[in-house]
Amino acid sequence: MNRIHAWMLTTAVSMAAGGIGTHALAQDAKSVAPKARPAAGKAVPVADVGDGDLKKLIALSFHSKGPATLDGVLQQDPMQQACSQYPDRTSVPEPVAKKIEAAEIRQVKYPADGKYLGDWKVGEQIAQNGRGMQFSDPVGGTNGANCYACHQLTKAEISFGNIGPSLYQYGKLRGNSEAVIKYTWGKIWDSNAFSACSNMPRFGHKGILTEQQIRDVMALLLDPASPVNQ
Ligand code: HEC
């Protein structure tokens, strides 16, 4: 998002700066802004605005609160920096994707005790729970995973998103070989290890879920008694 309407930036900056207009970004924006906002119906001039300008703008208007911090918004790790160069993950060049996946798979931590499966009933609660890491959540509180926001998992739950593929009958269809178990753990730990620039959160790597919570979600997907596999 390097090209934005200069007058929109000017407006947003003056709002964020409380109309004072003396902030460095406001001055930068003025230097690229047209003299006056164009009349309705006229083409809107655009100007190149760099990532640095946008970062300054976000820093002006976003206030850290609870677990939702400004650093969390602005600090990008190498994978996020690489993925930010592409508008959607289907446009990531193959060599870039391969490099990201290779780096991310090295970050996956498999359970030291070799126990991959927990309690699917707890896993179902975690999959249903969309709380955590928002400004209104406690710092260090227990997070949910909100898997249903993107995936179908069971037949009983009829409200689910479809950004991700249906995971209904995941274990029944794939079995529970060591390869399947390790892939599934790795996918939940760090989704980008298997598909660069994935929309799916990196639950383990980013500390969203604990190791035990991942075991419980694993059981939801793979336990033959889980409603996912009925
Ligand atoms: C914000 C959306 C989102 C959330 C939340 C999400 N996922 Fe995903 N997931 C995706 C997308 C998109 C894909 C497909 C692209 C990819 O592989 O990354 C995917 C792929 C997967 C796959 C691989 C499927 C396959 O065919 O190999 C698994 C397993 C999975 N998700 C499990 C989960 C679990 C378990 C949760 C909750 C702990 C979860 N996801 C939460 C978006 C999401």
Give the secondary structure arrangement, pairings included:
Blueprint: E1 3-5, H1 6-16, H2 24-32, E2 46-48, H3 51-61, H4 70-74, H5 78-83, H6 94-105, H7 120-128, H8 170-174, H9 178-189, H10 211-222
Antiparallel strand pairs: 1-2
Helix pairs in contact: 1-2, 7-10, 9-10
Folded structure, characterized:
InterPro entries: Cyt_c-like_dom, Cyt_c-like_dom_sf, Thiosulf_SoxX. Pfam families: Cytochrom_C. Keywords: Heme, Iron, Metal-binding. Residues 118-225 form the Cytochrome c domain. With 230 residues, the chain is mainly alpha-helical. 40% of the residues lie in helices and 3% in strands. It has a two-stranded antiparallel sheet with strand order 1-2. The site of heme C has 23 residues, from helix 9 and helix 10. Heme C binds at residues 127, 145-147, 149-151, 163-165, 167, 184, 187-188, 191, 195, 198-201, 203, 217, 221.
